[in-house]
Amino acid sequence: VDFQITVGARGDRVTSIYAQVRDAILDGRLRAGEQLPPSRELAGRLLVSRNTVALAYERLTAEGFLVAKVGAGTFVSGDRPGTRTRTAPEGTGIRPRAIWADAQLFGLPHPTQPKFNFSVGIPDPRLFPWETWRRLVSQVLRPATFRPNGYDDPAGNAELRAAIARYIGVSRSVRAAAEDVLITRGAQQALDLIGRVLIEPGDVVAVEEPGYPPARALFHSLGARVTGVPVDSEGIAVQSIPRTARLVYTTPSHQFPLGTAMSMARRTALLDWAQRHDAVIIEDDYDSEFRFADRPLEPLQSLDRTGRVLYVGSFAKTLSPMLRMGFLVAPGSLRDALHAARQYTDWHNELVGQVALARFIDDGLLARHVRKATREYARRHAIISRILAQDFADWFDVIPSSAGLHLCAPLRPHATIDMAALAAQTTDAGIAVDQLTTFGGGPGFVFGYGGINDTDIPAGLARLAGIIQGFQFWRS
Ligand SMILES: Cc1ncc(COP(=O)(O)O)c(C=O)c1O
Fold first, then answer.
1. CA 354 – CA 356 distance, rounded (Å)
2. Which of 119, 120, 256 gets mutated to test ligand 1 (max ligand atoms within 8 A of its CB)?
3. DSSP letters of 181-250?
4. Ligand 1 atom nearest residue 190's Cα
């Protein structure tokens, strides 16, 4: 390895080299088996005599940090004394802006894989088309695919923008040409770009409550005054949106986390409201591709006649969050600002994945994948719904839903379960399940079924029911 060592003009240079190599081994920068530069070469670089380096190496070898292999060189020893962690300095004098002081992180990976994983928001990695993706990536990964300088349009790769425009035109009746599509790193970045170009500090942004915490947190971080608006069985309560709201963030196809679809009457009311109040609507259509029963209602974007709906999509559910691939369809009046905002932030998405996804869509493979995954998720949705209705009816209601990757079960009004205590026990029992309160709702659970297969669902729910029964018994 080309290892950074500095030696002063004066002082004990042998000890200095010795200490720097030893520290690098102790804190893990140099790992067992790595080869050190030959003493002659290092001496040349450091402008010291070869003997100085040789003496330092000898000492490190004697103490067991290095091993010399005749004819091969000097290596970091495999069985060296213990390691310590080297961290960045605390920086006690440096503080983030006040808005970041209470920032929190969402959806971090579980330290251990839970036996029964009902976490929301994850598609099944076993359904991901690994073989096909590998083939497409290796097809794409050639110089001819890319522009000579390696950069592309901040709005995204042209092939992918065209493929998405066609796909959502057919599957969701979204009205968009390729130029209207901006490729983003997931829905989250689409929300960020919208916020950057539309939110003035202090602007009111209305979000659904319960709702999607990362969206709320993002708008708050951009200086918005974020206001929660209740959601009923038809969708966001339009009459409760503050008149001053500049932006309304909503999930009409499959409300997050309640799982309901916004009624047509409510869609019309929301669009009317936005027009009267000169507000902008963000339609987050994050997982509506998976529909099990009824025909999807038209998106707000295609019902809108005044160009005030920004349509956000993601491949986090239809394919995988690991791709960090999403998109935004915005009115032409925002296009230049959005493209500039994208370039100032991080220029554009990584290109190999964009072109691979374009081909995946154009070859009809996405549509096929969604059909297959929908059959699987429909099965899981049905199993959970049935078991909750049969075995949990004393404690939980199930909100009817027919799409997506999760369903919501609020605690029944008369049920007296201490949800916080229950949560602790479910975690101990190897069950990961999200609480409705996490998303700003009342007591209850949100069951995701992307991370658990159909054969494990009954056992997981039986274990959960067992805990609740023991709990009830213990209370009485
Ligand atoms: C409401 C909502 N929007 C968007 C997303 C996906 O976001 P991203 O594409 O940034 O991963 C999720 C994922 O859980 C979600 O629940």
1. 5
2. 256
3. EEEESHHHHHHHHHHHHHPPTT-EEEEEES--HHHHHHHHHTT-EEEEEEEETTEE-GGGS-TTEEEEEE
4. 10
Question: What values do phi and psi take at 147, rounded to 5?
Answer: -70, 150
Ligand 1 mean position to 212 CA, how many Å?
A: 8
pLDDT tens column, 429-461:
999 999 999 999 999 999 999 999 999 999 999
Torsion of CA 236, 239, 243, 247, to 10 degrees: 10
pLDDT, averaged across the chain? 94
Distance 316 CA to ligand 1 centre (A): 7
How confident is the model at residue 50, as a pLDDT? 95
Compute, in angstroms, the gap from residue 246 CA to the centroid of ligand 1: 22
Record the tokens describing residue 146, joined without a space: 């890319």
Asked if 339 and 306 touch (Cβ cutoff 8 Å), the reply is no
CA dist 251 and 215 (Å) reads 11
pLDDT category at 355 given cuts 50, 70, 90 is very high
CA-CA distances (angstroms) from residue 439 to 72, 212, 352, 387?
A: 59, 6, 35, 24
β-pairing verdict for 116-118 and 309-314 = unpaired
- Mean pLDDT over residues 306-320, rounded? 97
Of the given ranges (68-82, 240-254, 293-307), which has the lowest mean pLDDT? 68-82
Nearest C-alpha to atom 6 of ligand 1 is from which residue? Answer: 187
User: Is the bond leading into 443 cis (omega within 30 degrees of zero)?
Assistant: no
Q: Whose CA is nearest to atom 15 of ligand 1?
A: 286
* pLDDT, tens digit, 9 for 90 and up, residues 226-249: 999 999 999 999 999 999 999 999
| DSSP code of residue 446 | E
Banded model confidence at residue 296, pLDDT cuts 50, 70, 90: confident
For residue 422, give the nearest of 443, 450, 451 by alpha carbon. Answer: 443
Dihedral of the CA atoms 79, 81, 84, 86 (nearest 10)? -80
Pocket of ligand 1 (CB under 6 A): 121, 186-188, 212, 251, 256, 284, 286, 314, 316, 321, 326
Q: Model-level pTM greater than 0.70? A: yes
Ranges of H-type helices in 6-62: 13-26, 39-46, 50-62
